[in-house]
């Protein structure tokens, strides 16, 4: 049977099989062993010295950068730092409790979600306007001198 449709189907099926084989091969693992717990690969010379782990977390900000009666969002770090009254600093999650959007819009003492317009108090994290119905969770801060970091 020399049906042109049959040979075309066979060609397309063969090309699909070859493509699938390539995709599966690309998904496979490699033959390299994982690094050892010492951080070196087998056969590599061990390193000496190097960076030491930090003794405390890097500061998010300094006290002077947080306005009294307002807050600043550090969305990349997932935290909002507020100063409701002079010298009092509080941390809140920068993730909206409604649908987990990152909170970055702060005007005065109001934190507003850009996704669905929920509003929270920068003084205590409570909901001012929905659709969110849960306050922002508190985040522990560490104050050392002028620096503010995550605890």
From TrEMBL:
Signal peptide, first to last residue: 1-25
Keywords for the protein's UniProt record, in alphabetical order: 2Fe-2S, Disulfide bond, Iron, Iron-sulfur, Metal-binding, Signal
Annotated ranges, domain Rieske: 58-150
Gene Ontology molecular-function annotations: 2 iron, 2 sulfur cluster binding; metal ion binding; monooxygenase activity; oxidoreductase activity, acting on paired donors, with incorporation or reduction of molecular oxygen
Low complexity composition bias: residue spans: 37-53
Keyword Acetylation: no
Origin: domain of life: Bacteria
Cellular component per GO, a single term: membrane
Region feature (Disordered): 26-64
Keyword Iron annotated: yes
Cofactor field: [2Fe-2S] cluster
UniProt xrefs under InterPro entries: Rieske_2Fe-2S (IPR017941), Rieske_2Fe-2S_sf (IPR036922), Rieske_Fe-S_prot (IPR014349), Rieske_Fe-S_prot_C (IPR005805), TAT_signal (IPR006311)
Function noted in UniProt: Iron-sulfur subunit of the cytochrome bc1 complex, an essential component of the respiratory electron transport chain required for ATP synthesis. The bc1 complex catalyzes the oxidation of menaquinol and the reduction of cytochrome c in the respiratory chain. The bc1 complex operates through a Q-cycle mechanism that couples electron transfer to generation of the proton gradient that drives ATP synthesis.
Protein name per Swiss-Prot or TrEMBL: Cytochrome bc1 complex Rieske iron-sulfur subunit
Organism expressing this protein natively: Rhizocola hellebori
Species classification: Bacteria, Bacillati, Actinomycetota, Actinomycetes, Micromonosporales
């Amino acid at each position: 049977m020399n049906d042109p449709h049959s040979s075309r189907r066979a060609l397309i099926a063969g090309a699909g099989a070859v493509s699938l084989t390539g995709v599966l091969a690309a998904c496979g693992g490699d033959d390299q062993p994982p690094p050892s717990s010492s951080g070196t690969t087998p056969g590599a010379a061990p390193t000496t010295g190097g960076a030491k782990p930090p003794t405390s977390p890097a500061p998010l900000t300094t006290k002077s950068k947080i306005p009294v009666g307002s807050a600043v969002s550090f969305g990349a770090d997932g935290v909002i730092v507020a100063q409701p009254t002079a010298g009092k600093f509080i941390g809140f999650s920068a993730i909206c409790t409604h649908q987990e959007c990152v909170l970055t819009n702060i005007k005065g003492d109001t934190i507003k979600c850009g996704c669905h317009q929920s509003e929270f108090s920068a003084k205590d994290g409570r909901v001012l306007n929905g659709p969110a119905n849960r306050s922002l969770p508190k985040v522990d801060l560490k104050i050392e001198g002028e620096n503010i970091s995550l605890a």
